[in-house]
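Notes from hallway chat w/ T.B., transcribed later so I don't forget. T.B. wanted the structure written out for a chain they're using in a teaching module, and asked if we could keep both sequence and structure tokens in one place. Agreed to drop them here.
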Amino acid sequence: MNNVMKIGLIVIATLLAALLLFEGYAVWRASARTPAIIAAHRNRPVNLAQVGSRRLQMLLQVEDPGFYRHHGVDFSTPGQGKTTLTQAMVKRLYFDGGFKPGFAKIEQSLIARFVFDPALAKRDQLEIALNIASFGTIKGKPVIGFEQAAQTFFGAPLTRLSDHHFLMLVAMLKAPNALDPIRHPTENADRVARIEALLGGKCKPRDLDDVDYIACAGIK
């Protein structure tokens, strides 16, 4: 092995060690913050009973099919995509300065797997998700949580929405501003139709990244 190769290996090893230390510190810091984060979200306007088990299952089949099986991350369930509900919550709750792709994705996944998921029962995670989900912005103001979204887009409380209207909100979660049913009704309707075909068992996601349910297009 020549000197150039040795130096290269040393540099790589040093960088990996630095990355491990940095991410280890990030996980430790997240763990220290977790009790306060949980306490801040103890009072939740929307609870699971208000949504109902059937609609919760509809939401999970779209957003996180393996939610009750995984431990914060899921790299295998078809249709899951690269972000579980647990990871999405970590993104909202732990990255105060804003989430940026890259190394932050590693940090997000580690916190989801080793900090947030072990700290909260699945029911509590799901309840928090319902209350902090992002539905984009209207006139520059963020729309946060399913209850506010129901009032904003349909002028009614969440408990009074039809299944179809509920799915219109679920459809938005992938890209809230681009799938807004008011400003982009066609795009929202197309995704809802695919979701309804998926929920009806008429089609399946082809792989992990198939969050658009390609096989569901045009099925009625």
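Follow-up for T.B.: The chain is about 55% helix and 5% strand. Might be a good example for the class.
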